[in-house]
Design goal:
By secondary structure, the chain is mostly helical. The protein folds into two domains: about 1-125, Winged helix-like DNA-binding domain superfamily/Winged helix DNA-binding domain (Arc Repressor Mutant, subunit A, Orthogonal Bundle); about 125-160. The protein contains six helices and two strands. It has helices at about 1-30, 35-50, 55-65, 70-80, 100-125, 130-160, and strands at about 85-90, 95-100. A two-stranded antiparallel ribbon has the order 1-2. The radius of gyration is 19 Å and the shape is globular. The chain starts with a helix and ends with a helix. Pfam families: Staph_reg_Sar_Rot. Keywords: DNA-binding, Transcription, Transcription regulation. It comes from Pseudoflavonifractor intestinihominis.
């Protein structure tokens, strides 16, 4: 069993690193002015608008798991680069909404194509049954990491 633990640990570390590195390389060939973190923020803002989700700064910060200050800094930079805009809510001027520009939409579409290619490639060499088992197993792995993250966040808040 220890051999499986070592293999699984190495696999998780390597796959996580490889996905991020590949995503960075794909990004650098198309949108050199954006970091991966910035692109993921753009992705979140586009998703909020497209799906009718809360696009207030506080909601976007929570979805990205960053502080309001960190989000403000990132949005300011992306505003200067022409990717995001901030606007006051029509009904409640205290509320700041974050919206993507057309430039952000283009970057997000390119990023979506990368993800589609990644998934299609992976599914191309799995049978339907293997894909079902794989997705179910990854769902459990994802749940584990979410629980760990929320537990760590709760501990950090309790210490503050």
């Amino acid at each position: 069993m220890d051999q499986h633990r070592e293999e699984l640990n190495r696999f998780l570390v390597e796959v996580f690193h490889d996905i991020l590195k590949t995503e960075e390389l794909a990004l650098s060939s198309s949108k050199k002015e954006l970091s991966l973190r910035e692109l993921h923020l753009i992705e979140e803002v586009c998703r909020a608008e497209d799906q009718g989700l809360d696009n207030r700064a506080t909601a976007i910060a929570a979805a990205q798991r960053v502080t309001a200050g960190t989000l403000t800094t990132a949005v300011s930079l992306l505003e200067r680069k022409g990717y995001l805009i901030r606007c006051r809510d029509e009904h409640d001027k205290r509320v700041v909404r974050i919206l993507p520009t057309e430039k952000a939409r283009q970057a997000n579409r390119a990023h979506e194509r990368f993800h589609e290619e990644m998934v299609e490639n992976l599914l191309s060499f799995l049978t339907q049954e293997e894909a079902q088992v794989f997705v179910r197993a990854l769902g459990r792995v994802s749940l584990f990491f979410r629980e760990k993250m929320f537990s760590a966040c709760a501990e950090a808040e309790a210490e503050a």
